[in-house]
Amino acid sequence: MNAEDLIDAVRDDKQTELSRLGSSKMLYADTRGEMEPETVTAAAAAREQAAHETFDAWSADGDDDAAALFADAASDAADRLADIDVAPADRSFAVDAVLAGLDGTVERLGGLLGWTLVDQKVKEQLTGFFTGQADPQTASTYRSAGKDVAALRTEAGDLLETLCENEDDWGAAQTAAADVVEAAYEEYFETLEELGVNPKPVC
Fold it and tell me: What CA–CA distances, in Å, run from 162 to 105, 170, 192?
């Protein structure tokens, strides 16, 4: 297995989950149905804050190259948070609980990869939302952030190719990535059900 195989395997295994996480209902779930620009931005800020805290903690531990990558990921999240002129919503995310439970560099890199798959979907929806709000500057900011997240996924994959010594390592990374996506989807699904919204698309 290589990084491309791993990413393809996670996307194939979690195709339905990622597709639904890429719908406008994602922001509806994040804001608990309060789809005002400030509320959407506050939820996005909460995600950035949580990501910064997780990756910053990881940067103090593990392989030097991985620690540097985690530090970069934490710094990127902090920069995006600084660009958001709204206080983060008082929220926690299931994804972050899964990430916090990962031990070992390979698993954490897999978790980071899974986080990028989820977070890029969020950034795409934020881009679309602010485009619809006739706020092209904010939309452009999130579009650029989505590209940064995709680049981070590539870097995590490249490092996994260096560190994975056997199929067990690749399997551990894949499991971690899939667990992150699954956690995001389960929270999304359950939140929408609580709000009285059908999480499944209507054909």
Answer: 12, 11, 40
